[in-house]
Design goal:
Elements (H helix, E strand, L loop, with lengths): L2 H6 L2 H32 L5 H45 L9 H46 L2 H20 L1 H22 L2 H6 L3 H54 L4 H42 L22 E5 L9 H7 L3 E7 L5 H12 L3 E4 L18 H12 L7 E5 L7 H14 L4 E5 L4
Parallel strand pairs: 2-5, 3-4, 4-5
Antiparallel strand pairs: 1-2
Helix pairs in contact: 2-3, 2-4, 2-9, 3-4, 4-5, 4-6, 4-9, 5-8, 5-9, 6-8, 6-9, 8-9
């Protein structure tokens, strides 16, 4: 499902738009009342009912209705964010072939965890704000038409469309600058995530290297952001100049041509601040137009994180495996390398050990097995962030404790018949290695254990 569909179908988003609609109708009613009260006063008339209605329109639109708009918007952001993340989890689940692929991780995980979530929540905020501003312009323009004349409303509409047309001319330039900025910012955020070890451990030689590279990446991201901002601001300034000039010019033209009509001139002067407010809102709409083009690029990048992976996108694991440098044996026999998958299919228990030179592809071979057998197998990397805690425990576990906790979690998993352990014995004391080795021997009586050993 596309992100735009997730947003449009969210009930809280629809309620936010409904609240905005009610709010802007009340605001426009206030504009109309202000104009008619001015016209009444110029003719020596006064209506207490209109005064009370005007005050209520100000109070309701700025307090009670605004509360509902803000509340519904926040709920919509959280609701759609949860739907997006669930879609991300479902579409990326059980794809072990891409686990160590840094390019795919950057395009999916890094965007999801940083720019993607911001893009989604900002889009909802953008739609609500843009709806409020657009409706404000529309309803207030109708009010001004009712109070003054049709030509004033026509000029406001024409001025707004002229500004948007100017921005649209630079469509490709805006999108390209936004795409470059997002890519550079994502690159910077990814690099900053490596700061912990380089900063906290206090190794000066590594820290200086890290800071030097960070400075280069930061300057590139900063340059991209400034270039995008300068370009967009220039385009918006041109659009605003045209919009403001058309509206202000028309108002003063009307005043000069109707100098003898005191009631009309008075109404024009009183409504001038409201007209200028509409002009400001038109300028905001023009800014929104450029922001929407930027958000489109960000949403397009974010949307890629929840698209199902095509077979052509997955790395070919066999390219990373050199069977000539790998040895495979069970606890009873040496296994022919080309017959490994068939051997696994025919044996529901036992213990297979994979050894070989560094870089021979032992870990890749485990991932290939995981890719083939899917949820029937459980793959445990040597370093991981797999969720092994039942509660919110913040205790830091040693390598041995982490492994034992992990094994205790999976030992009773009925849906999996195979454990794939990657260099589980690295960084363990001899005592811990022997204890876990005995544990795996017991497990292998009922399930199949396939392991890559660090120690022979």
């Amino acid at each position: 499902m596309k992100l735009s569909q997730i947003i449009r179908k969210d009930q809280w988003f629809l309620l936010a738009l409904l609240a905005v609609l009610i709010q802007q109708i009340i605001v426009a009613l206030g504009t109309y009342l202000m104009g008619t009260i001015t016209a009444d006063v110029s003719h020596g008339e006064f209506s207490l009912f209109k005064i009370i209605a005007l005050i209520l329109s100000f109070l309701l639109s700025g307090s009670l209705i605004h509360y509902f708009v803000s509340n519904f918007t926040l709920r919509s952001q959280k609701s759609t964010l949860k739907k997006y993340l669930m879609s991300y989890f479902n579409n990326n689940y059980n794809n072990p072939a891409i686990w160590r692929n840094t390019k795919i991780k950057s395009l999916r995980h890094d965007i999801m965890s940083r720019e993607g979530q911001d893009a989604l929540t900002n889009t909802i905020h953008f739609f609500v704000d843009a709806a409020a501003t657009t409706l404000n312009i529309l309803f207030n323009t109708i009010s001004i038409i009712l109070v003054i004349n049709f030509s004033m409303g026509f000029v406001l509409l024409a001025a707004g469309l002229a500004g948007i047309a100017i921005i649209h001319v630079f469509d490709k330039k805006i999108k390209m600058a936004s795409s470059i900025e997002m890519a550079e910012q994502n690159n910077l955020n990814g690099f900053i995530s490596t700061s912990w070890d380089n900063v906290v451990l206090g190794n000066q030689i590594f820290f200086q290297k890290w800071v030097s590279r960070w400075n280069r990446i930061f300057k590139t991201a900063e340059h991209a952001a400034i270039k995008r901002s300068q370009s967009n601001d220039f385009i918006i300034s041109m659009a605003s100049f045209v919009t403001t000039g058309m509206v202000v010019g028309f108002i003063f033209f009307q005043i000069l041509n109707n100098k003898t009509n005191i009631a009309l001139v008075t109404t024009l002067l009183v409504m001038l601040p409201r007209c200028m407010q509409i002009v400001m809102h038109l300028q905001i709409i023009q800014t929104y137009w450029t922001q929407w083009k930027q958000l489109q690029q960000k949403l397009a990048q974010t949307e890629k994180t929840i698209l199902p992976l095509h077979s052509g996108e997955k790395p070919i694991i066999d390219h990373f495996i050199d069977l000539e440098k790998i040895k495979i044996r069970s606890n009873t026999e040496v296994i022919e390398k080309n017959n490994l998958i068939e051997w696994i299919e025919n044996n529901r228990s036992g213990r297979i050990t994979i050894t070989g030179e560094n870089g021979a592809g032992k870990s890749s071979l485990l991932i290939k097995i995981k890719e083939i057998f899917g949820e029937k197998s459980i793959y445990i990397p040597s370093h991981h962030h797999l969720e092994i805690n039942d509660g919110e425990s913040s205790k830091i576990l040693s390598t041995g404790e982490t492994l034992m906790r992990t094994l205790s979690v999976i030992k009773d998993c009925s849906s999996s018949t195979m454990y794939l352990l990657d260099e589980w014995d690295a960084n363990l004391s001899r005592e811990n290695r022997e204890n876990i080795d005995q544990f795996l021997n017991q497990v292998s009586n009922q399930k199949l254990v396939v392991e890559v050993r660090h120690h022979g």
